[in-house]
Design goal:
The complex is a heterodimer of chains A (168) and B (801).
Chain A lengths: L3 H4 L2 E8 L2 E8 L4 H8 L18 E4 L2 E4 L12 E3 L13 H9 L8 H13 L6 H7 L11 H14 L5
Parallel strand pairs in A: 1-5
Antiparallel strand pairs in A: 1-2, 3-4, 3-5
Chain B lengths: L16 H6 L16 E7 L5 E7 L1 H4 L4 E6 H4 L6 E2 L7 H5 L3 E5 L3 E2 L6 E2 L5 E7 L2 H8 L3 E6 L6 H5 L14 E9 L2 H7 L2 E12 L8 E5 L7 E5 L4 H12 L6 E4 L15 H13 L3 E4 L2 H7 L3 E12 L5 E11 L7 H11 L9 E8 L14 H19 L3 H8 L8 E6 L5 E4 L4 H14 L8 E2 L5 E15 L5 E7 L5 E5 L8 H13 L6 E5 L16 H28 L6 E4 L2 E4 L2 E7 H6 L9 H4 L4 E7 L5 E14 L5 E11 L6 H21 L28 E7 L16 H4 L1 H13 L11 E2 L3 H7 L13
Parallel strand pairs in B: 1-15, 11-33, 13-14, 17-18, 24-25, 31-32
Antiparallel strand pairs in B: 1-8, 2-7, 2-9, 3-8, 4-6, 5-10, 10-18, 11-16, 12-13, 12-15, 16-17, 19-20, 21-22, 22-30, 23-24, 23-29, 26-27, 27-28, 30-31
The chains are: A alpha+beta (168), B alpha+beta (801).
């Protein structure tokens, strides 16, 4: 059951989103994804299933790839959040993962891409050893219907090289 | 082919311009638009497969906080007619043909259900509220009293005498019947030394684009018409349907497909929500948006496939095919908007690149209480290819030879090209294969496969002591691509001298903007990055269709090149007058027109544009017709034929029946490649969708017609784990049926993947396989593999597909 007065309670929230401190209030039942998209206008985070399965909504919460569709915004209180919009920093520069996805054509429709890139970031930031088979397993929670994954895997390997992440 | 210009951008691996935007999350999908006063719509949907609606009580919902309006069918009475789904015409060539009969019925789908609901997921009421959560809260408060009726869930149910009607306007639950006979089938079956019969089924699947459907509609008080943003493949069809149902002029309805997160056929037809949202926006004079959630997508967005074939073949002891009879049944759910694409495609693709002297096809397409059936990527071709290749595999078994032996025995050769099959395509034209060289494709594929040292059929134990069997299998396909009727393009020079393309069709990730820019860049000798491209908006061009059936590069791309050539002519014409030089002495290059041999004498495109605006500075060529803007429509003579061969290497766990695809190889011919990077992407993605269909994906309903697969936990898409390494090679036989020499590629990869996987499983099982028939049903589940080895498997009988 949704609805009712409890659902509409408002709580304060204090977070850092893409490096900027954000203070505000959120309905307690609002998902982190909805808050990012509707509250902050960060529409780069996409909702593919809202069931926590497809991974399109993946963002970094305190450095961990997290499904923002099944986390409440209030749970992100006092957390640091990174979305696709904050990945590259300022200007028109791209993060090595974004650059490699683009150059290697690791995307087509682009809908799963922001979540996919955040998940890949989680993999590259994590402890090694890093390998193609390890990456495949790590990405098993991020669905892409366009690419068949080959060019995504190639892109991540290229980004790993750029980022100085060892690959076996 | 000789390049007509100094620098060719066609054929280059150019990184799609779309990519840089999308990797930054800067795409704009329908859900991303922010409009003042935007309201949200949520639906109350039927929980029953078939029931009489006794009452709908929206009182409580209407008084809910944040709710602006509630609509039920009663509110639409006399305002919106039921959506008429029959959108595809049967061309005169087919209607006139003596041995083809097509009985194709229109199908009326209510925009909101009124007297009866006819599938789980059908819309009953629409709630409009200030935000989505409020709308969804209120939707739960709508009381719908239903009297359950017995649902029709199979062809047998639908065709039974006295079966109740799925659609009250359709007396016999028939969506379409397609019968076609070519050559002397009776004679072939009477004379041939051997016959065999195989039952082959391609199950019901969901195209499952990662972005669900969504619609945003805006109407402004005092302004005629409505603007609709929809996550659709067919903006023009949506526009026409909205105009027709709301009584508007087509030109007063503008439909925009912005960034669309995949389509694959799921977004190829007009949906009730598109009509309804346009109606609501006009009623309330406020913008409204509906974003489908994934559960809704599984129960309210069209499915595909669901064909059950009984194929018989008459052949000789040497393997030569004499005749084929294929009777199939397609489960269409409550509507079948594309009978020619979904079902007639069997007539035009079953033969593939085989020489088949006689053929009889009889397809019965029935209505059931399930979701609408539309052409999912490949549409009739994967079903045909799987049916044909299972038949070939069974012939091989019967003759004690290999699949490839039977294939080669019957395969058409390049020397026979162009080859007329005697069959008509769905556009009513004779099928004439253009430049298909399957033998070379197969040789190249075998060379690639041979390089990979896979020990086929050699059992080995894995680390856990399980018996792992390895095998390689092949599949084949043909694909008529670039079907009409037409698509258009405008190429222009704007006030700043920039080249701009406005094209019909719409993109769902196919990088069309990059492709179109490459085409124009070659005509004007500029860098593709200097060409602006816009598409997916009915506001640009009066007429158009959409993106499906591997057609956009061929049909819209040809319109682009035609328009670019017309514009180039006009630019030269104006420049010649301005410079007082003969046109033949002018060059168009790098955004300028210059005198041959005297590059200092030149004009920019901007200068030329200015001279075409009527007034004191205009030259005579500009006085009658302002600006530099040329429109062209391309009407293809008929389709052009892509074809190819796929191989799969699999590992089968003999104890559990689990199949892993270790590798796919494909050799295909899509004519001239405009952008190899984009082509590879299309092939890769389609192959893996084919893997999903082969092993994983299946829409299931229980015996009450309740869908059992309503999330990606139940409906399994291939992940990075199941998706193997892919290798491809291209043959490049330019098409003579369009000015670009291209053939379609979007669907190619998906068609033969299931055949290759099934044959690979057979190869892996070898002598262990006692009954191949469980492998004739897609998806091939672990229990199917065990059953094919004669192992007793208890199946869940609650699930029926």
């Amino acid at each position: 059951m949704s609805g009712g007065a409890e659902g509409k309670q408002i709580r304060p929230i204090r977070t850092v989103v893409n490096g900027a401190p954000i203070e505000g209030t959120v309905p307690v039942r609002q998902s982190l994804a909805d808050w990012l998209r509707d509250g902050l206008g960060l529409t780069g985070t996409h909702l593919g299933c809202e069931q926590g399965v497809c991974g399109a909504c993946t963002v970094m919460v305190d450095g961990e790839p997290t499904r923002s569709c099944i986390m409440f915004a209030v749970q992100a209180d006092r957390s640091e959040i990174l979305t696709i919009e904050g990945l590259a920093g300022t200007g028109d520069s791209l993060h090595p993962l974004q650059e490699a996805f683009s150059e290697r054509h690791g995307l087509q429709c682009g809908f799963c891409t922001p979540g996919m890139i955040m998940a890949c970031l989680g993999y590259l930031n994590g402890e090694g050893p890093h390998s193609r088979s390890g990456l495949r397993r790590y990405l098993s929670g991020n669905l892409c219907r366009c690419t068949g994954y080959m060019k995504i895997l190639e892109a991540v390997e290229e980004a790993a090289q750029q980022m100085g992440v060892s690959w076996s | 082919m000789k390049a007509p210009f100094d620098v060719a951008h066609i054929g280059q691996r150019i990184v799609p311009r779309e990519n840089r935007v999308l990797v930054q999350g800067k795409g704009t999908y329908v859900g991303d638009f922010r409009l003042n006063g935007l309201l949200s719509v949520a639906f109350v949907r039927s929980p029953s497969a078939r029931a009489r609606i006794v009452s709908i009580d929206v009182t409580e919902a209407r008084s809910c906080e944040g709710v602006v309006a509630v609509f039920t069918a009663d509110d639409l009475l006399g305002k919106i007619a039921p959506l008429r789904l029959m959108q595809e015409n049967v061309p005169p060539g087919i209607l006139r043909h003596p041995s083809i009969q097509v009985d194709s019925r229109p199908c009326n789908v209510p925009v909101l259900a009124r007297d009866e609901v006819s599938h789980v997921g059908q819309g009953i009421a629409a709630i409009v509220a200030v935000d989505r959560a409020s709308a969804e809260d209120a939707a739960e408060l709508v009381r719908v009293d239903l009297e359950e009726l017995v649902p029709i869930l199979s062809a047998d149910d639908a065709l039974a005498p006295d079966a109740p009607r799925v659609d009250p306007t359709n007396a016999d639950n028939l969506a379409a019947r397609i019968q076609a006979t070519f050559g002397d089938v009776e004679g072939a079956f009477a004379d041939a030394a051997r016959h065999l019969t195989v039952r082959v089924k391609s199950g019901r699947v969901s195209a499952s684009p990662m972005e669900t459907r969504s619609v945003l509609a805006q109407a402004t008080k005092g302004v005629e018409g409505v603007t609709v943003w929809s996550s659709t493949q067919v903006p023009y069809l949506v526009r026409n349907a909205i105009a027709q149902h709301l009584g508007l002029r087509e030109e007063d309805v503008r439909v925009i497909a912005p960034d669309v997160g995949g389509g694959f056929g799921a977004k190829v037809h007009v949906y009730p929500e598109e009509i309804l949202l346009a109606f609501i926006a006009r009623s309330l004079e406020q913008p409204v948006r509906w974003i489908e959630d994934r559960q809704e997508h599984f129960i309210a967005t069209a499915h595909g496939r669901d064909q059950d074939h009984l194929i018989q073949v008459a052949f000789e002891d040497d393997g030569q095919i004499r005749g084929i009879r294929d009777h199939f049944v397609q489960d269409c759910g409550i509507g079948f908007p594309y009978p020619m694409s979904s079902a007639y495609n069997v007539v035009s693709h079953l033969q593939g690149l085989l020489e088949v002297p006689s053929m009889e096809i009889d397809g019965t397409c029935v209505l059931t209480n399930k979701v609408v059936n539309v052409p999912y990527r490949g549409s009739g071709r994967p079903e045909s290819a799987f049916t044909r290749d299972r038949m070939l595999s069974r012939m091989a078994r019967d003759l004690g030879v290999g699949f490839l032996d039977v294939l080669r025995r019957n395969m058409l050769t390049v020397e026979q090209m162009p080859y007329s099959t005697g069959v008509l395509y769905r556009d009513g034209e004779q099928i004439v294969y253009d430049g298909c060289d399957m033998k070379s494709a197969l040789e190249r594929l075998q060379a690639m496969v041979a390089e990979a040292s896979v020990a086929a059929g050699q059992p080995a134990l894995d680390g856990l002591g399980r018996q792992c069997l390895k095998g390689i299998g092949f599949g084949t396909y043909t694909e008529g691509t670039g079907v009409g009727p037409f698509e258009g393009a405008v190429v222009s020079v704007d006030e700043a001298g920039r080249l701009t393309v406005e094209a019909g069709g719409a993109s769902q990730g196919q990088s069309h903007a990059t492709t179109f820019a490459q085409i124009v860049a070659d005509e004007f000798q500029v860098d593709p990055s200097e060409v602006l491209v816009r598409s997916g908006d009915t506001g640009f061009l009066r007429y158009g269709v959409g993106t499906f059936a591997s057609r956009t590069t061929i049909v819209a791309g040809s319109a682009v090149v035609q328009a670019a050539r017309k514009l180039r002519e006009r630019v030269l014409n104006v420049a010649a007058e301005m410079m007082e030089i003969d046109q033949s002495d002018l060059l168009v290059q790098a955004g300028r027109v210059s005198a041959r041999g005297a590059p200092s004498r030149s004009l920019s495109l901007r200068d030329i544009f200015v001279a075409t605006i009527p007034g004191p500075r205009a030259v005579s060529a500009g006085q009658d017709l302002p600006g530099l803007r040329e429109v062209s429509y391309f009407v293809p003579p008929t389709v052009t034929w892509s074809y190819g061969v796929v191989a799969a290497a699999v590992t089968v766990d003999a104890d559990t029946g689990m199949v892993a695809v270790d590798k796919f190889w494909i050799v295909h011919d899509c004519g001239r490649l405009i952008n190899p990077l984009v082509v590879e992407g299309q092939v890769d993605g389609a192959l893996i969708q084919g893997l999903g269909a082969a092993l994983l994906e299946s829409i299931l309903y229980d015996s009450n017609g309740t869908p059992l697969t309503t999330s990606f936990m139940d409906y399994l898409l291939p992940t990075a784990v199941e998706s193997p390494e892919l290798r491809h090679d291209h043959l490049e036989t330019p098409s003579e049926r369009n000015p670009l020499g291209v053939k379609g590629i979007g669907e190619s990869g998906i068609i033969a993947a299931p055949s290759a996987v099934a044959n690979a499983i057979e190869a892996a099982l070898g002598e262990l396989m006692t009954d191949p028939s469980p492998l004739d049903v897609l998806p091939i589940r672990p229990e199917s593999v065990l059953a094919s080895m004669g192992k007793d498997v208890s199946r869940r009988d609650s699930a029926r597909s």
